[in-house]
Write the C-alpha cells for this entry.
Amino acid sequence: MTAAPTATTVRAPVLPALLLLLTVFGPISMDLYLPALPALSVELGAVTSVAQLTVTACLIGLAAGQLIAGPLSDRYGRRGILLSGIVAYIATSVLCAISPTVELLILARLVQGLAGGVGIVIAQAAGRDIYSGRSLILFYGRLTVIGGFAAILGPLLGGVLVAITDWRGLFVFLAVIGAGILIVTLIVFRETLPADRRTSGGLVETLRDFRALATDRQFLGAVFTQGFLYAALFAYLAGSTFVLQDVYGLTPLQYALAFGLNSAGFMVFGYLAGRASERWSIAGTLALGVAVAGAGAAGLLLAGVSAMPLWLVIVALFLLASGVAISSPPATTLALADYPQMAGTASSLLGMVRFGFGAVAAPLVGVAGATSILPLGAVTVSAVVLAGASLVLAGAPTPARLPLTDN
C-alpha cells in the first residue's frame, strides 16, 4: 500500500490549519444560536420540546451527512465533496434565517446539518490521509481543541449578537462564516487522496467496508463509547440554555460566558488528552475521560434531585464537557488508525454515531419543560454509564495495533 503523504507534501502548515478550521461546522452550527433559543420559541410559538427539535434536526443531519460524505470521498476524492458541502451549508443557513414557521426551520436545520457534516468528516479523513503515528494522535487532539474553541466562540458571539439582532440574524452570520470558509477552501485545499488510493467498487465495496468495521471489536468499542458520551454532551447543549436561563435566571450574555467557561475546559482538556494519549496510554486516557464525564453527570443528577447552587451546576457541566474532550482524541485514533484505505468510511461511522446518539438524547431533556434539571441529569448519567459499558465490552486495545510510529 502506498504510504500516506506527509504533511509537508500538502502545503503544510496551511492545509492542516484548514482541516482544523473545517471542524467549526458542527460546534458553531449548534452553539451560535443557543442563547437565542428561548426567544426563538416565543417568536415562533413553539413549546420547549418542539424548539429543541431544531437542535435534534441539526444533529440528525450532521450524522447522516457524514455517513454519506465519508464513503463518497473515499471513492471520488475529498475536494469536490467538500466544496459541494460548503455551498449547500451557505444556502441552507440563509433558508434557516428566512423560515416563517418552526416546522420549516426544523427542516432547514436538518438540511443544514447534512451539509455541515461534510466538513467534519472530510477534516478527519483528510487528516488520516496526511498523518500517521504520533502525529495522527496529536492532530486529533488539535481537532478537539479547535472544536472546543469554536464552542467557546459560538455562544459568546451569539450572546453578543442577540443584543443587536434576532435569531434570524444569527443564521445570516452562519452563512457569512460558510462563505469565508468556501473562499479559503478554494484557495488552499488540494486533493489529499490520490486517485490510486481511492476505492473503486461502488456500493458493493462500501457495504463490504461497513461490514468489516462492524465486526471490529476495538472499532466498535471506540465508536460506541464516543456515541454515548456525545449523547451526554448534546443533551447538555440542548438543556443547559433552559437550565441556566430559565431556572437560574442568567441573561443570554451571562449564559454565553458560563458556556464559554465550560468550552474552555473542553479545549484545554482536549489538548492535554492528545498529549496523554501519545506519552501515557491511549486506552487509559479514554477511560479517564469516561470517569470525568461521569462525575459531571452525577453532579447534574444531584442538582435535579435537590436544589443546588449555581456554581455546583456549572462545575458539573464543566466536568461533563471536559470528560468528553479527554475521550475524543484517543477514541478517534483507535477508530481510524487501522483504516487508512477507507478513512472516510470509518470517520463517517464515527461521526454518524456521535451525532446520531446526540440527536436521540437532545429532546429528552425537555420532557419536563424548561424549569427542571432532573431530565438533563438522568439522560447524562444514563449515557455515561452506557459509554463505560461500551468501553469495558470492547476490552483493552491490542498493543500491536496502537499507532505509535510515524510512517
In short: The first helix runs from residue 14 to 22. The chain has one domain: 8-189+202-397.
